[in-house]
Amino acid sequence: MATPAHRGSFTGRIVAASIAGIIGLVILVNLLANSPLVGVVVLMLVGAGAGGLIVRGTRRAEQRRLWERHQAQVRAAQSMEIARYHAMDPRQFEDAIAYLCRRDGCLDARRVGGAGDLGADVLATAPDGRRIVIQCKRYGPTTKVGSQDAQRFGGTCYTVHGAQVAVIVTTSLFTRPALDYAVRQGIRCFDERALAGWASRTGPAPWM
To answer: In what order do the strands lie in the sheet with 131-137?
Structure first.
């Protein structure tokens, strides 16, 4: 068992060794600081670090430019699609939605809109077998789909048409009350932007 004297001697040796190490490190740094070679090495290290930062910054800037270019192309494609749908009459719009359903793998997609359609303009079967019921609203930019539109569709899409996926697709926007009602009833709302994404293959289909 170590005595207090032994413990004090051991602690003193540790302190002395630590002080000696610090002094040696200071001397080494001073010697290296006076060497021209050290300056060259330091400059090389600093230059390498700066070069790495420049390369990483250049890569990030290039990635950002590519992303912005991609987004611009997406917006242009979507704008073209929306303009095309605005130029259609309601029946042509319904046919166009039925075509999009068929294009993306739906079975038996067909237009059924017209007098007495009870809110269903397009009926289709999703690739996974679900029954899709779509109401089409080809409205102008200043006319929004309101809560009454959504409620009329909500009153028939499930009970009359047996929808497993109920969708309202419009070339315009939805009012907040319409969106709130649709959320409560499980109706999917596709506004002009979502429609443009679907049509241009830059966004999902309504049943996804």
So the answer is: 107-111, 122-125, 131-137, 165-170, 187-190
- Within the chain, strands assigned E span 107-111, 122-125, 131-137, 165-170, 187-190
Q: Tell me the average pLDDT across 35-42.
A: 52
Q: Is 66 or 6 the better-scoring residue by pLDDT?
A: 66
**Separation of alpha carbons 140 and 163, rounded Å:** 27
203 secondary structure, DSSP code: S
Collapsing DSSP to helix, strand or coil, 53 comes out as helix
CA dist., res. 193 & res. 201, Å (int) = 12
Q: Are 135 and 121 in contact (CB under 8 A)?
A: yes
Nearest Cα to Cα of residue 205 among 153, 134, 112:
134
Contact 88, 138 (CB under 8 A): yes
Residue 187: phi, psi to the nearest 5?
-95, 135
pLDDT digits (tens, 9 = 90+) for 149-165: 999 999 999 999 999 99
Q: Fill in the amino acid letter for 68.
A: E
The residues, ordered by sequence, that sit 6+ positions from 185 with a Cβ below 8 Å of its Cβ are: 150, 154, 166
Characterize 11-33 residue by residue with b for buried, 16 or more Cβ atoms within 10 angstroms of its Cβ, and e for exposed.
Answer: eeeeeeeeeeeeeeeeeeeeeee
